[in-house]
Amino acid sequence: MAAGPGIVVTGASGRMGQMLVRAIHASEVCHLVAALEREGHPWVGQDVGTAMGGAAIGVTVTDDPVAAFARAQAVVDFTAPAATVGFAALAAQARAVHVIGTTGLSEVDLAAISRAAHHAVIVRAGNMSLGLNLLMQMTQRVAAALDADYDIEIVEAHHRHKVDAPSGTALMLGEAAAAGRGVVLNEVRDAGRDGMTGARRRGDIGFAAIRGGDIVGEHDVIFAADGERITLRHVATDRSVFVRGALRAALWGQDRDPGEYDMLDVLGI
Ligand SMILES: NC(=O)C1=CN([C@@H]2O[C@H](COP(=O)(O)OP(=O)(O)OC[C@H]3O[C@@H](n4cnc5c(N)ncnc54)[C@H](OP(=O)(O)O)[C@@H]3O)[C@@H](O)[C@H]2O)C=CC1
Ligand SMILES: O=C(O)C1=N[C@H](C(=O)O)C[C@H](O)C1
What we know:
binds NADPH dihydro-nicotinamide-adenine-dinucleotide phosphate, 36% helix, elongated, alpha/beta, NAD binding, 7-stranded parallel beta sheet, Rossmann fold
C-alpha cells in the first residue's frame, strides 16, 4: 500500500524535476503517482526511472496533466511561468495542493494563480529552503532598524542555465527589505544598471545578477552606509534544500483551506 499523499512532479526531466522524482520515490511519507512532461518530449511513454538513466520505478512519464492530477493529492511544480499558470487551473479543478517553485512569474501570471487559489491550496515561494526563508525574516528586521543612509543592494548568483533575473529569491528578499522599510518595492526597485545611470537614488533597492557555471544559488543582501556595511548571505550548495522544502509544503497543504500560502506558513516561522 502506497504511503501518504500521491504526488505529481511536473517538468520531470528538469534539474529540480529529477531530484523530486528520486526523493518522492525514496520517501516513506508520500508517493509518486505521475511524472509529467510536455507533449512531444522524448521521455513521454518511458518509465521515469529508466529515462533518468537508472532502474525502472513503475511510473511512466505522461503528457496528460488532467488525468495525472485527477489521481493526485499534490502537484509539485518547478517548470516555467506559462506551464505553471496552466497547471494552477488544472490542479485547482482536481482540488490538489499545488506547490509552485517556478520563478519569473509576471503580475498577470500571479493574478491567474490567485484566482486558482480560491478553489484549492497553493503554496508558492521563490525559494523553498529553510535557511533562505530565515534570511528573509532577518532582512526585514535589519531593514526596519536602519534608515535610508544604508543603501540596500541585493546580489544573486546562479548557474549559466537560469533564464530569469532577478531571481525569485532576490525579489523575495527585496520585498522583505521594502516591507521592513515601509516602502513599495516597485517604487524603489533598480535592476539592470548599464551605461550612464547617474548616481544612486537615495532609498532605492538595487539588484545585480551573476550567471555562471553550476552555481546552485547564492544571495547577498548588503546594507551599505558611509563607514560601515552589513551583509546577510545565503548560499545553497545542493538543490536538495529546495526539494525538502517543496515536499514539506505538499504534506503541510493537505486538509488546509483553499488559499495562497508561502514557506513562512509552512515552516511556521
Ligand atoms: N522556489 C525554489 O526553491 C526554486 C525554484 N526554482 C525554479 O524552478 C524552475 C525550474 O528550474 P530548473 O529545474 O532548474 O529548470 P529546468 O529547465 O532544468 O527544468 C524545467 C522543466 O520544466 C519543463 N517545462 C518548461 N516549460 C514547460 C511547459 N510549457 N510545459 C511543460 N513543461 C515545461 C522543462 O521541459 P523542457 O525541457 O521540455 O523545456 C523542464 O523539464 C525555475 O523557474 C527556477 O527558477 C529552481 C530551484 C529552486
Ligand atoms: O533557477 C534556479 O536554479 C533557482 N531559482 C530560484 C530563484 O529564482 O531564486 C531559487 C534558487 O535560487 C535556484
